[in-house]
Amino acid sequence: MSAPPRPSTASRTSGARTTRPAGNRPTARRGRLVEEPPTPEPRSLALAHMVSGALAAAQALVLSLAVVVLPAVVAYLVGNATLTSAPETPDDGVQVRSAIDVATGLWLLGHGVPLTTDAVTVTLAPLGIAALALFATYASAKRFAATSARAWVAGAVTYGVGTTGVALLAGSAPGWSLALAPLAGLLMGGLGTGLGILARPDAPMPAEIGERVEALARRLTGVDLVPATLRLGVRGGAVVVAFLTGGAALLVAAWALAGRATSSDIVTALEPGWTGGVVFAVAQLALLPNLLLWALAWIAGPGFAVGEGTSFTPFGTASGPLPAVPLLGALPGEDWANPVSAWVPLLVVACGVAAGVFVWRRLEPSLVRWSDVGWVLGGIVVVPGLFVLLGQWAAAGAVGPGRLSQIGADPLVCAGLVAAEVAGGAAAVLLGAKLDVVARRGEIGDDLVAWLRRPASVDGEGNRDEGRDRDEGPGGAARDLASELGFAGSPDPGGDGVPAGGGPDSDGVPAGGGPDGDPGARGAENPGSSGDWARTDAYAVSDPEPDPDVRPVTGPADDDETPEARPGT
């Protein structure tokens, strides 16, 4: 009698149940099957992020401080060994400490903390040291800091505490100026650490952060605080800043080439040696961004001063005795003020024209409203105005009492002139292009005639109210006219977001609808409101250039397409 055959393993398929039903399995075994790997403790992870930000900021502070202090100490030691061969005296340590204090004071001066030595207060910040500290903080945070808000806060606080400690040890910022050290450290550390963290591969894109902030502000206020056209105008303003900076850099190079003989005479008279030459090179590199901003003020027209009673403008030069700094030998002489240089401010106007062209090429002319033109123009003007205002304020100051207490350009005057010149160039392009569109379609004339000839108002349901005059009711005639001329932000009598009268707006688009007749094209973001003034279809944020594979819906219908086949008709 043979044994019964065993079940064949080949007949079993993957996932087939060969044991007891799942309902009869022990719960412990099922728990082991779905067991997940343990996650790190939240407290330890947060602590690690904070430590990474603090270490990155501390490393940046030490590196930037060493770049300034070490050349000063080496120059003193080499100079002292060259002057005398006597053995060391007890005063050498004091003198080395004095050299370190002066170098540390210059590092703090680059952060905006005034330097006080022998009853002389220096407030002219060498922006090159500020740029060095900012770059060191950025590079260190990008390499070592974690991508989190805790790391950013820890880095900013660490840099602020370190700056305060350096100011206390140096003793070059007594009194009220010592209170500026923590503020300057927080600002510099927060800015550099934030930029470095955002530059990490795992960090969110700046555009994504902006969208999150915009969505949060819209939920809190119910209004789009930063319209798409304003963002486009900010991009145009950044183009102006880039052009102005490049032009100022070229001008500084021309000044240095023309004044190389004067700078060489200053170096020869000082006889600094190779160590002193290194110190002079570092000092002049620290002042180079200041000279760059002064050149920008010269291009704009108001010019700058290097001492009381001096003036360097494209319309005239009034110079006087200057400190023995080789870099100042590159300042423009009297031959730089001539009839040709009087036209230099037109370069700023040309930058505004370039920004206007840059912006208009990214707009859809048939959808641009007058309010869009205003938002774009505002963004173009505000960015270079703020840049010049803050830059000239940082690049100005005093290097001593008396006539040396006035160095740099007037921030308010320079920023105002730059904003006005940029606005003139950009407005010439934007208004000219918009008026050209209006003139080719005769929109304003048609809207005015239709509004003046209208005998009665029309409510939100399209019913004519013969008993009510068109000038009565909320808003009156001015509100109706504003709606019909394309200002969608003007409230309408019906309160439904449709311009009163149902007439076309200033872009030839039917009231309450988009270019393809979709009634939600302009009001979908805030339905039921009195018009969405903050958004526009005139600018596509993600893809400003038209897609060649997509047929535009704003153009005329094709020959083989009937009006009934188009959406929204």
UniProtKB/TrEMBL annotation:
Region: Disordered; residue ranges are 1-41, 458-569
Bilayer-crossing residues are 53-78, 119-139, 151-170, 176-199, 238-258, 278-300, 312-331, 343-361, 373-395, 407-431
Keyword hit for Membrane = yes
Record flagged with keyword Ribosomal protein: no
The annotated regions of Low complexity compositional bias extend over 8-23
- InterPro entries in UniProt: DUF6350
Keywords linked to the UniProt accession? Membrane, Transmembrane, Transmembrane helix
Basic and acidic residues: which segments have biased composition? Answer: 461-473
Regions of biased composition (Gly residues) lie at 492-517
UniProt protein name: DUF6350 family protein
Species per Swiss-Prot/TrEMBL record: Promicromonospora kroppenstedtii
